[in-house]
Specification:
By secondary structure, the protein is an alpha/beta fold. The chain folds into 2 domains: about 160 residues, Rossmann fold (3-Layer(aba) Sandwich), CATH 3.40.50; about 140 residues, Rossmann fold (3-Layer(aba) Sandwich), CATH 3.40.50.2300. It is built from 12 helices and 12 strands. The protein has a 6-stranded parallel sheet with strand order 2-1-3-4-5-11, with helices on both faces. α10 links the parallel β9 and β10. α3 packs parallel to α11 and α8 packs across α9.
């Protein structure tokens, strides 16, 4: 049996208008009323990590496109790395009585109470790309890249790149679960290369500018460094800019993660040795498909993982999008 939508119809609002009034959310009564009278079969609230990274733009757009196929209205917002912003967005979704919420958490632990609040309001929560690690938070299904496997592929690629010997630094972003899994997989495999030393892990925030500064500091502290593993393309390109400024672009090489257009271009231009391919469009599509199945009363798997591949210079040279 289909789960019934919590939003009231316009006719029901008119009939009970004399005795009650719909609660306005933080965004105001006009937007709430629009939600309550929407022609969509279901309304989904979505909050991605950021729209400054093309990965999450692609994921967001795929959710909206897949939602349209199911006659869903997808209200898309972005936390912009700020968990307080994301909490407010979830509160607004609850006030709007959305039928489901999809999150790419800004902080995998701190978002827990907000997910618990949505569950208490009867709203199912799904996560995409980044999982929630809070024990008191109930998530129906997590749809993501196989980040553990992707981290392992990154390590294999670094070993290939270095010929099995050298020193590598990690540009990290440990606040989010997806990166925790990437670095775990990376360390598992790199530890098997006895002649490769991980000199340390530094937080680059997944941001190009911050990673430039952090990478510059790492190069000062470790002048004999041979490689970086960057947890996404922006941090990898930030490291590439630091290498160029230090005159070390020919000596120190980089493996990044995401294979978004900027990362693929970086591989083609020789700024990155390789980047690990994620498929944000598949993640966005699959999470909305899963929401649709759940709202139709079907059982869904608690986790759906999408495998990674490696994107090297040969792939970039053959890439028609880079011609």
């Amino acid at each position: 049996m289909k789960r019934l939508r919590r939003g009231l119809t316009l006719g029901a609002l008119l009939l009970c208008g004399a005795c009650s009034k719909p609660e306005a959310g933080p965004a105001g009564s006009a937007e709430t009323a629009a939600k309550l009278t929407s022609d969509a079969q279901h309304v989904i609230g979505a909050s991605v990590l950021t729209t400054t990274n093309p990965f999450f733009v692609a994921l967001r757009d795929a959710m909206k496109q897949e939602g349209a196929k199911h006659n869903f209205e997808v209200i898309a917002t972005s936390g912009e790395y700020n968990v307080a912003n994301q909490r407010n967005q979830i509160n607004e979704f609850i006030a709007r009585r959305v039928d489901a919420i999809v999150l790419c958490p800004c902080d995998s632990q701190a978002i827990g109470p907000s997910i618990a609040a949505a569950s208490a309001a009867g709203i199912p929560v799904f996560t995409a790309d980044i999982a929630c690690l809070a024990k008191d938070a109930k998530v129906v299904c997590h749809v993501a890249t196989d980040n553990l496997g992707g981290g392992r592929k990154a390590a294999e690629t670094v070993i290939e790149m270095l010929g099995g010997t050298g020193k590598v630094a990690i540009l990290d972003f440990p606040e989010v679960e997806s990166v925790i899994m990437r670095t775990r997989g990376f360390r598992e495999v790199i530890a098997q290369a006895k002649e490769i030393e991980v000199v340390g892990s530094w937080p680059g925030g997944g941001d190009r500018g911050k990673s430039f500064t952090v990478a510059a500091d790492i190069l000062q502290a470790h002048p004999d460094l041979d490689a970086f593993f960057a947890i996404n393309d922006p941090s990898g390109l930030g490291a590439a800019a630091a290498l160029e400024k230090a005159g070390k672009s020919d000596r120190v090489r980089i493996v990044a993660f995401d294979a978004q257009p900027i990362g693929r271009r970086g591989v083609k231009e020789g700024k990155l040795y390789a980047t690990i391919v994620q498929y944000p469009e598949k993640i966005g599509q699959k999470v909305i498909e899963t929401v649709a199945r759940y709202l139709d009363g079907e059982e869904v798997a608690p986790e759906i993982l999408i495998p990674c591949t490696v994107y090297r210079k040969a792939d970039a040279d053959a890439d028609p999008t880079l011609k």
